[in-house]
């Protein structure tokens, strides 16, 4: 028995951790307890050197001294302030009016707003709960299939998992030892493509099952002009003019690639906002307006989140700010936007601060527990066992990626994304690097995969969030006066299944088309470090006299 334990210390240790987590013990304490227990067992069996434990205080201090992790509380606080300041309500109401008349319009609006909220809040819970409270009653009121409605709300909320400034991408970059900015830039296109796949699924449903996602009736649409039109032409002209103005401002600059797009968007946003403000002032003074009510409302609702996206992601992408600095600016910008909307209060700040402190403490405790576990795991040569196991898989890089993604997909049924990032990634990263896999690409693939942890029935957190706000009993709709049936848990679960399949398809697409992620290297320096020559000028030094004092 002793010889068996000595020979299989690493796999037994990993299995013990999985069992403790499945039994429901908190992840942080399970990691720490398993690490310390097997350290003691290893010392008794002569398989673990006690000197390793002397490095534990320094590893814990390294967690506290990690500047990268400072971005987590900043982005969390930003998202909570924005969620409580009513930005999601304004977006959903306006974009729902914009898309509402077309078949599946509310579903498209939810996907669009979900992507915008993901790029500003970065918090899945905030996105799912906001859209569940605001959009779900409207969808049910106008005859949306309950599985379709709940599925697209939950899935669109999880876009905050992969679209920057995602919290899990920060953790992923830290665990892989890579730049958060590179991880953000690499994940941006896959996040947008995934949102497009969600919208594509909604379109497919409307083609096959038209009654599952009907358009809103004409009387449900506001923001109409005096002649009864919706003013969409005015909105289209303003959008086109903003794009042209942004390009015009940047056409003679030396900026190219992603930086050109980001800065063009910034100038376009400023132009649209200036035109909308000018229209509002002229309307107040003279009663004449050159923009429609829909164009003005859409501009005033869209500009704040778009400006915040530039303030956070734009400054990171163009290299002006680090992710931590971008998060700090985003938190300050969220407070300013909340104050501008006159929805900022000390109670709101207190609630956001308390929630941020809880989440940050949760992350830090898991990370400390992971440090204890990994110290013992490496001490018993667990990393060697993992490396031998994974490098011997058939198929090389592709075989490794398929196996790892299948493993993460299964573990996502039981573990959330923080636990997966802290436990699995440190074990897989070194093996991926040894196989020649780009770690940013690898991290984005796993980030897309980990989204499924929010959507897996029956333990997906996005499903729990939606269940908490979906009607559990029949109710009287406040607009139509009709009695509405409740939303069952089974309908929420079945609604999530197609989107889990879409997320798996997205994983395969990122593997098949790595350039979706690898474009981040296009912004790197093109100078070959091997060609750099440093010439140190010769400096004549005066002679040194080491003799004693002259007599």
- How do the strands of the widest beta sheet line up side by side? 1-2
**What does the overall shape look like?**
globular
Largest beta-sheet details: 2 strands, antiparallel
Q: Distance between termini?
A: 81 Å
Number of helices: 25
- Classification by helices and strands: mainly alpha
User: Would you report the number of β strands?
Assistant: 2
Radius of gyration: 27 Å
Strand content: under 5%
Q: Indicate the percent of residues in helices.
A: 55-70%
Tell me the domain tally: 2
Sequence stretches where pLDDT stays below 50 over 5 or more residues: 523-551
The string of secondary-structure elements, in order, is HHHHHHHHHHHHHHHHHHHHHHHEEHH
How would you summarize this macromolecular structure in one to three sentences?
This protein is mainly alpha-helical and about 550 residues long.
Task: Tell me what the structure shows.
By secondary structure, this protein is mostly helical. The protein has two domains: 70-223 and 298-344 and 380-523, no CATH class; 232-291, no CATH class. The protein has 25 helices and two strands. Helix 7 runs antiparallel to helix 8 (124-141) and helix 18 runs parallel beside helix 21 (439-450).
